[in-house]
Recover the amino acids of this structure.
């Protein structure tokens, strides 16, 4: 088979797009009420294939396509694999999510795949306009996915909020591209770095970078661009949150890494200060905000803000260890967060019957395996040793300290002390004694109590379906592996980092 | 393959495998207890391998049973395990206390046994890991890991409504300084490019870690603060009383002291010898304050657990005093006293737990006259009390004697006054312990013993307590069995930290006379 280089370079995206379109077409001819599971399995197969193709591309060296606007190197392959893994886990975890609402499932699977296409495109574009297209593709599908539990007030709120604020953010990004073009004469990242040296208007270039950081800061929910996060995460379906708190963020971080490290390395002394501030602010606001939350999804939303902050710390470690630390942390964060939301999906179901920390009380007695997994993922989010979260944090802070940024490390570590507090609140509720819950429940009585007892009595809610079990096992294995045997991923991250520099 | 090379790995990971096994077994009848007992006993047998195959002749700084494998390529992290005279007996002690802890929890923990024993075993994994790790990263991983099972044990198996608060207090007190410890460790790595302790100790001996003395000072304080909180040293003891009051007996037995004191000896002294020596007067002063303060507060408590908590503070401060004198006698005595505190304090907490199991209260005022009803308990209780207050022929006497004589010989200012003040701790501890003994076991029959029919020790409890009582006597009569290994460490630290001008020969002879005298 003789494929043109452009086709080979974008083969994973092509595969996903084709599968997505196929899903849409088949969905249209399926009768309402018939199971959409085969479509889900098709999506899973497509994602797996895309992942394998990406991995294969690693051997081909750096590929370029479409007159240099696409560049497939180790860096983009790393993020391709990560996105494929997250999407795979999301699809597996939501295969049985639409029990009783099967008519929605087809488009859902297709939208997830289209989102993945956008994210993958973002990570392999070295031309800002191409990045923008990828950003739009991924954003539009996530806007729709956020409001997917149709008929629920919070879902609509979530979707609209995300859409409005997201459009602003992408406008900022676009504005940044325009300014960068004005200042350096190009929208290709490599050419920008080149043009920066001779640019007559360096301040405008920095403004351009600032605009792009604002746009991407929104996507990764870094403070102070984080305000949408809790509301959107609360209203969106749990499996979608699991995905959109990890995969698009990973893609946005990849873009940010490309822009800062290979587009504007000359301005490092200026943007590193900016990123420093964003990191400190995100960690602090995220962790302090999470302290007061009672809704588990909101709590995890604030936690994801804080984790965006930890990740930004890696950017200050310019130029040596920063990229690989950021790559590794993205992977570790994706594994544990997807895992945590997979548990939330499983215990809550489509109706999200368990919302607050109160609702999670004594979960360990009813669903011991899920509780143990949740505990494991939360401990990893805290950063307890022998989990991916710990090694990721360790690696990031080590990189920052090597670069001489002592204070951000101290701020970060103190923040992780604060973070324990709210994660442990969830944990201690999950493992609380049952007699306490009977004392406490009447005070928390309300709409949720009815759902709670319903989900308790129905035996269907107690069994974990096979695909969801696979997703959970994959996430747990990934978190454990990243914590105990990180060598392989570290190697890949270093490889990725080398290809970017 | 020789078992010597993997024995440490086995000791650390057998409890982990045990925890996994327990998690999979059904929680029915007494399955959990028997399984946990089997695992901990097996681990204990494994730790016994160490003293029998330890080469006592080799000098300290040479680690034995070493295992050194590459783990993570960059940053350079190695799976480096080893023991020396400092850690060997601590491991045996930890190994011994675990099965006793299981025996004593046999009936006390009656619901959610699986969670309890799994956490208990994980706690043991972490402690063993702390004692054997010679790589800073590996060590830190175990150090952090040790927080979690303990915090969950306190928050779920605590006695009163205050358990959540106690757990959070414990966790925050321990976690935040640990974060600074991590910064300090990363800084050391950034300067030296290694996490390997023996290498770092060599670099430190050559003053090659960093030329900046202020940075070294800050890093050394990062280390010392994290450890001081966990011991705890006087103004940092806020978590101790609540944690001890809430935690179940088996957890209290391993809660305070050992790991943090060990960490100071192993890491602070090795990586920051000069700074540790310079800050010693402050630590000694805090230790003396801790001794007097803890003992005085113990004197006025009406709650047995609180009394035990303040007494723990006093006795741990004694050890801090000993090791910071940097004399051979002080160091040896301090390390010996860590072991003593483990067994005497362990026995004391076990006995308190037994009383609580029978009468459901720790309030001294509700007890009284128990001696008539529980002859075995009172016997063992009295022996334990005597051991804690340091009666000659029993274990603590040797340790306290060495510590005080070391303190008298220390090169620091005001040593005579400070030693005299510390000695009041011995008297005060006798005062509060005897007073408690009298109020609980003698006097008239109290309200609780009248209302509730207690029962004397059963076979299981006998089995849990007698080994410790036998050790009181053995460690009091033949300390050289233990000090043989410990002394290699004490001598080496003393020689490394103090300038060669100090007359070390004098101290060696004085040590011999003191141990001889104790015998």
């Amino acid at each position: 088979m003789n494929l043109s280089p452009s086709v080979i370079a974008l083969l994973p995206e092509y595969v996903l797009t084709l599968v997505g379109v196929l899903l849409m077409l088949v969905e249209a001819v399926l009768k309402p009420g018939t199971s959409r599971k085969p479509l889900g399995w098709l999506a899973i197969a497509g994602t797996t294939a895309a992942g394998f193709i990406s991995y294969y591309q690693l051997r081909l060296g750096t590929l370029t396509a479409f007159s240099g606007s696409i560049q497939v190197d180790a860096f983009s392959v790393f993020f391709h694999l990560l996105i494929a893994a997250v999407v795979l886990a999301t699809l597996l975890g939501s295969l049985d999510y639409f029990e009783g609402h099967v008519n929605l499932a087809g488009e859902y699977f297709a939208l997830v795949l289209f989102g993945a296409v956008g994210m993958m495109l973002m990570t392999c574009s070295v031309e800002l306009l191409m990045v923008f297209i990828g950003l739009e593709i991924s954003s539009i599908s996530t806007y729709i996915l956020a409001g997917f539990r149709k008929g629920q007030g919070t879902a609509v709120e979530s979707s609209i909020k995300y859409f409005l604020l997201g459009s602003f953010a992408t406008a900022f990004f676009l504005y940044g591209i325009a300014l960068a073009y004005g200042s350096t004469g190009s929208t290709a990242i490599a050419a920008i770095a080149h043009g920066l040296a001779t640019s007559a208007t360096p301040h405008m270039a920095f403004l351009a970078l600032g605009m792009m950081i604002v746009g991407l800061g929104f996507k990764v929910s870094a403070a102070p661009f984080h305000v949408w996060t809790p509301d959107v995460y609360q209203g969106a379906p749990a499996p979608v949150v699991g995905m959109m708190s990890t995969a698009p963020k990973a893609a946005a971080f990849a873009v940010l890494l490309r822009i800062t490290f290979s587009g504007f390395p000359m301005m490092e002394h200026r943007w590193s200060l900016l990123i420093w501030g964003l990191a400190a602010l995100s960690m602090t606001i995220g962790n302090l905000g999470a302290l007061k939350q009672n809704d588990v999804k909101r709590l995890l939303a604030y936690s994801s803000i804080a984790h965006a902050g930890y990740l930004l710390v890696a950017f200050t470690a310019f130029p040596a260890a920063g990229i690989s630390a950021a790559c590794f942390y993205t992977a570790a964060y994706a594994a544990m967060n997807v895992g945590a939301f997979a548990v939330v999906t499983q215990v809550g179901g489509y109706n999200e019957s368990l919302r607050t920390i109160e609702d999670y009380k004594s979960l360990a007695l009813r669903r011991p395996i899920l509780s143990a997994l949740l505990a494991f993922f939360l401990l990893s989010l805290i950063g307890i040793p022998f989990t991916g979260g710990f090694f990721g944090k360790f690696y990031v802070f080590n990189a920052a300290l090597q670069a001489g940024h002592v204070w951000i490390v101290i701020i970060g570590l103190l923040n992780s002390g604060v973070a324990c507090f709210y994660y442990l609140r969830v944990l201690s509720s999950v493992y609380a004694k049952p007699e306490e819950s009977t004392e406490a429940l009447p005070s928390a009585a309300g709409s949720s109590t009815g759902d709670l007892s319903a989900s308790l009595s129905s035996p269907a809610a107690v069994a974990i379906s096979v695909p969801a079990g696979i997703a959970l096992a994959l996430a747990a294995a990934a978190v454990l592996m990243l914590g105990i045997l990180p060598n392989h991923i570290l190697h890949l991250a270093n490889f990725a980092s080398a290809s970017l520099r | 393959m020789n078992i010597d090379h993997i024995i440490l790995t086995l000791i650390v990971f057998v409890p982990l495998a045990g925890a996994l096994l327990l998690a999979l077994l059904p929680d029915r009848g007494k399955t959990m207890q028997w399984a946990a007992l089997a695992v901990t006993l097996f681990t204990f047998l494994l730790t016994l391998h160490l003293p029998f195959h330890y080469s006592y002749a080799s000098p300290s700084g040479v680690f034995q049973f070493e295992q050194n494998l590459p783990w993570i390529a960059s940053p350079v992290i190695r799976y480096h395990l080893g023991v020396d005279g400092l850690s060997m007996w601590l491991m045996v002690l930890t190994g011994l206390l675990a099965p006793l802890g299981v025996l004593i929890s046999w009936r006390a923990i009656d619901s959610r046994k699986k969670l309890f024993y799994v956490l208990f075993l994980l706690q043991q994994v972490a402690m063993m890991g702390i004692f054997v790790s010679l790589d800073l990263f590996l060590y830190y991983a175990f150090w952090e890991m040790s927080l979690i099972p303990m915090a969950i044990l306190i928050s779920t198996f605590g006695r009163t409504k205050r358990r959540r608060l106690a757990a959070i207090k414990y966790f925050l007190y321990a976690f935040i300084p640990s974060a600074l410890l991590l910064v300090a460790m990363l800084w050391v790595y950034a300067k030296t490019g290694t996490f390997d302790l023996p290498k770092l100790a060599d670099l430190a001996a050559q003053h090659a870690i960093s030329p900046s003395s202020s940075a070294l000072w800050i890093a050394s304080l990062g280390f010392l603060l994290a450890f001081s909180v966990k011991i705890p040293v006087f103004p940092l003891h806020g978590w101790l009383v609540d944690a001890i009051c809430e935690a179940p007996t088996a957890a209290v037995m391993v809660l305070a002291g050992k790991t943090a004191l060990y960490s100071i000896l192993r890491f602070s002294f090795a990586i920051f010898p000069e700074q540790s020596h310079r800050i010693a007067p402050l630590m000694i002063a805090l230790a003396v304050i801790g001794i007097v303060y803890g003992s005085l507060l113990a004197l006025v408590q009406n709650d047995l657990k609180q009394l035990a908590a303040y007494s723990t503070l006093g006795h741990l401060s004694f050890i801090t005093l000993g090791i910071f004198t940097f004399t051979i006698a002080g160091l040896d005595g301090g390390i010996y006293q860590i072991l003593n505190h483990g067994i005497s304090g362990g026995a004391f907490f076990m006995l308190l737990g037994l009383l609580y199991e029978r009468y459901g209260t720790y309030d001294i005022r509700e007890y009284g006259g128990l001696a008539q009803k529980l002859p075995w308990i009172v016997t063992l209780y009295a022996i334990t009390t005597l051991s804690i207050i340091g009666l000659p022929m029993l274990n603590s006497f040797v340790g306290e004697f060495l510590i005080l004589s070391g303190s008298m010989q220390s090169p620091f200012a005001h040593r005579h006054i400070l030693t005299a003040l510390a000695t009041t701790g011995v008297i005060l501890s006798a005062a509060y312990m005897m007073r408690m003994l009298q109020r609980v076991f003698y006097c008239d029959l109290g309200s609780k013993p009248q209302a509730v029919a207690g029962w004397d020790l059963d076979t299981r409890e006998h089995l849990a307590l007698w080994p410790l009582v036998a050790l009181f006597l053995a460690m009091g009569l033949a300390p050289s069995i233990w000090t043989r290994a410990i002394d290699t460490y004490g001598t080496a630290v003393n020689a490394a930290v103090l300038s060669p001008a100090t007359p070390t020969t004098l101290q060696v002879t004085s040590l011999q006379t003191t141990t001889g005298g104790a015998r």
